[in-house]
Amino acid sequence: MRLNGFHHLTAITADAPGNYAFYTQTLGLRLVKKTVNQDDTSAYHLFYADGIGSPGSDITFFDWPAGREKRGTHSICNTGLRIKGEAAFNYWKERFASLGLKHGPIAERDGRLAIDFEDAEGQRLSLVDDDNPAEVNAWGSSPVPSAFQIRGLGPITLSVPDLAPTDAVLTTVMSMEKLRTYRNTSVYGMNGVGPIAELHVREEPELPPAASGAGAVHHVAFNIPMQDYDFWTKRLANFRIPNSGPVDRFWFKSLYFREPNGILFELATDGPGFAADEPMEKLGETLSLPPFLEEKRKAIEARLKPLK
Fold first, then answer.
1. Cβ proximity of 115 and 104 under 8 Å
2. How many angstroms separate the Cα of 88 from the Cα of each of 27, 122, 142, 146, 187?
3. Does 112 score more than 90 pLDDT?
4. What are the residue ranges spanned by the domains of the chain?
5. With bands split at pLDDT 50, 70 and 90, how would you rate the model's confidence at 119?
6. DSSP 3-state assignment of 95?
7. What average pLDDT score do residues 206-226 get?
8. If you write DSSP's letter for every residue of 184-228 in order, what string do you get?
9. Average pLDDT rounded to a whole number, residues 107-136
10. Does the pLDDT value for residue 103 go beyond 90?
11. Residue 136 binned pLDDT confidence (cut-offs 50, 70, 90)
12. What would the DSSP string read from start to end of 24-62?
C-alpha cells in the first residue's frame, strides 16, 4: 500500500491577517477552513487550497507569536506549488512584478520549469510545472484566472544532514520508490502523476540545524485512503516507530511520527473532508470547530484576532 502523494503541508506564521491577505489575494488560494490548532486553541489553523479543498492542495498555517525561523538542515526547506504550462509561468512572472514581489527567474530544475519566491515572513515557495493532466478545481472568486490558478502542492523538499536513515524509512516503511537524483537531491515517488507524488530530499551536512519560527514549516502530511488507516497504524507499530497513535481531526484522521533526521511527518486520510460541517459554497467564511471544541467556542473566539 503506497501513499497517494501529499495531503497538506503546515507552516508557521506570526501574522495571521497578513498571511490571509497574501495567500488569498496574492496567490489566489481559497481559505477553505478557518479553525484553531486543536492542541493550542489560542492559535488559528488556516487552510488554503483549491476551489473545493482537495486533498493535496492545502497549505496550512498555525498562527503563533514567534520570531523568524533560523534556516538550516533537519527541516522542510521548500514548498512547491503546482501550476501548468508556459503561459501560466509568464502570467505569474508578470503578476509578481506588478505586485512588487521579489522572485527568481523562470528556470528549469529537475526537468521542470520553476519560479522561486517567498512570502513576507520568509516562507520558501516555488511555482512548479505540473505533469498531471487533471483539470484544476478552480475557485470562482480568486483574483487569478482559472487557467493559471495554483493546482496544489508538490514537490516538497526536505534538508537532512545524512540521507541514509531517511532513505531507509521512506523506502522500507513508507513504500516510496527512489526515482532519480539531481545535484545533492534525491527524488522519491509515491502513487500519482507529477510533483504531487514527489518528495525531494537534499543532503546538506554542512548546514547547522534549523530552529523553528515564523517562516518555517511545521510538518508535511501524506495522503492515505480512509480504508488504509488501520493498516498504517499497525505498520508503524510493527516497525516500532514512535508515533502519536490514532488522532481524529474531524475533517481527516491522522498519525504523526518523526523520520530519523527529526522532521515531523503526518499520515492523513482523504476524508471525510472540509464539507463535513460546512456547505461547499461557504467553506472558510466562519470559524469552524470540531465537535469536541464547540462548548468552548465563545472563549476561543474571544482570543482570536480578526483576519480582515
1. yes
2. 13, 23, 15, 10, 25
3. yes
4. 6-303
5. very high
6. helix
7. 98
8. TEEEEE-SSSSGGGEEEEEE-TTSPBPB--BT-EEEEEEEE-GGG
9. 96
10. yes
11. confident
12. IIIS--EEEEEEEETTEEEEEEEEEESTT--TT-EEEEE
**What residues have CB less than 8 Å from 237, skipping those under 6 apart?**
243
Total residues found in the chain within this entry: 308
User: What is the rounded distance in angstroms from the CA atom of residue 184 to the CA atom of residue 10?
Assistant: 25
Helix (H, G, I), strand (E, B), or coil: what is residue 135?
coil
Contact 122, 215 (CB under 8 A): yes
Q: How does the average pLDDT of the chain come out, rounded?
A: 97
Q: What is the mean pLDDT of residues 258-281?
A: 98
Task: Report d(CA 174, CA 211) in Å as an integer.
Answer: 26
CATH topology of domain 6-303: 2,3-Dihydroxybiphenyl 1,2-Dioxygenase; domain 1 (3.10.180)
What's the rounded Cα separation, in Å, for the pair 221 and 133?
A: 23
Given a contact cutoff of 8 angstroms between Cβ atoms, the answer to whether 88 and 42 are in contact is: no
pLDDT of residue 290: 98
Is the bond preceding residue 272 a cis peptide, omega within 30 degrees?
A: yes
* Residue 17 φ/ψ, nearest 5 degrees: -60, -40
Task: Let me know: does 220 contact 7? Beta carbons within 8 Å.
Answer: no
Task: Point out which residues pair with 80 in neighbouring strands.
Answer: 126
Paired strand residues for 113: 108
